[in-house]
Write a structure and sequence with these properties.
The protein is an alpha/beta fold. The protein contains 10 helices and 14 strands.
């Protein structure tokens, strides 16, 4: 069965997800602001959940329609084939949002969508009451400029939850954003990766997993695994496929350091859970004492900045320190994500390339130096 899917994503990485989906074999890939649409079967559902490094979650698009009144919302929802996805005992909570639409009350929309789905299932299953004791099928609605999209979440916990980061440092970078930074920095399996402000190790670990072909979701559970309508064979086959692509026999190596000895210990534990301990050396060091360990290197870091941990003057001083130790070197590139408007001035030179990304709700730039 061909299924329509939607991936919500961090702003700025829609293109990365689109390319990734095409590499995974998805069809009809289309990028929009903050989301990517594609088509595939149940095997593709499992494949994207298990393998995507950049997606936040995988949702099934049950249907879309225009609605400017509660009656239109009810009838539009009821007309969709919910019985294709929901069994008579399944649980189906509803949540969502409305932006720039006539139907602005989220709680009222939530109630009406729930009632419409119940009425549809009553007719199909000839039941008057649904106990909802079975597997959860989270219904998500979005109403934007009066266009309603109704979706089913297949992932459960967000896909950034890989399972290796049980502990994190203050203001950690999301795993999906860390992986995106590795991608746009053109990290390769033969590179030497550095993060001299590694915190709990997210960038370094994501880079090692990417270089070694370790699927980010291969060891975690997804909510759609409990659904009767998705075969267990799809999940089994796609996990086997993902495992077959793992390759630890490469020249990649990473160096992660931080001034805080406690977070370095956390990073070591996280790397062990991710299965990449042999590819990383962690140690305690001040950024002011940064020294390359290799002739060539790819450096990616997420320094603390004014909106996260430091006051503005401290953040500017840190940027100046980076500018002094991140020298122009043949065979080296530096990618630094920052929300500071004065980063280039403080760092001491203009970036060769800049790219806008969001760290949560904070608008940032990735300043890239490679010339």
């Amino acid at each position: 069965m061909q299924i329509d899917f939607v991936i919500p994503c961090l702003l700025g990485i829609e293109g990365l997800i689109s390319d990734e989906l095409r590499c995974l074999g998805a069809e009809n890939v289309t990028a929009e602001n903050g989301r990517v649409l594609f088509c595939g079967d149940e095997y593709m559902l499992a494949r994207v959940n298990i393998n995507s490094r950049y997606a936040e979650r995988v949702q099934i698009l049950v249907g879309s329609f225009e609605a400017r009144s509660f009656e239109e919302l009810f009838e539009g929802t009821k007309a969709l084939e919910w019985e294709n996805w929901l069994g008579s005992e399944d649980s189906f909570p509803v949540k969502g949002y409305s932006i720039n639409s006539a139907l602005f009350s989220v709680s009222d929309c939530q109630s009406i969508i729930k009632k419409a789905v119940v009425e549809r299932l009553k007719q199909k299953y000839r039941l008057e009451w649904f106990d909802e004791t079975g597997p959860v099928h989270q219904i998500q609605f979005s109403i934007m400029k009066d266009k309603v999209s109704l979706l089913l979440d297949t992932s459960g916990e967000g896909l950034h939850k890989r399972g290796y980061r049980l502990e994190a440092s203050t203001a950690p970078l999301k795993e999906t954003l860390a992986a995106s930074l590795c991608n746009i920095s053109r990290l390769r399996p033969y590179h030497k990766l550095y993060d001299p402000m590694c915190g709990s190790g997210t960038i370094i670990i994501e880079g090692a997993m990417m270089a070694c072909g370790i699927a980010p979701g291969v060891n975690r559970f997804f909510s759609a695994e409990r659904w009767d309508v998705i075969s267990s064979a799809a999940w089994d086959n796609e996990r086997e496929r993902a495992q077959s692509l793992k390759n630890m026999d490469n020249d990649f190596f990473a160096y992660g350091s931080d001034i805080d000895e406690g977070v370095v210990e956390i990073a070591k534990l996280n790397a062990a859970r991710a299965g990449v301990t042999d590819k990383i050396k962690f140690f305690t060091a001040d950024i002011k004492d940064f020294k390359p360990q290799t002739e060539k290197g790819t450096l990616i870091c997420n320094p603390p900045y004014g909106e996260r941990l430091l006051d503005i003057q401290q953040a500017r001083g840190l940027s100046s320190a980076m500018g002094r130790v991140f020298e122009k070197r043949k065979g080296w590139s530096y990618s630094i994500i920052s929300a500071s408007e004065t980063f280039e001035e403080d760092f001491g030179r203009k970036a060769d390339k800049r790219r806008k990304l969001y760290n949560g709700m904070i608008k940032c730039q990735v300043y890239m130096y490679f010339k």
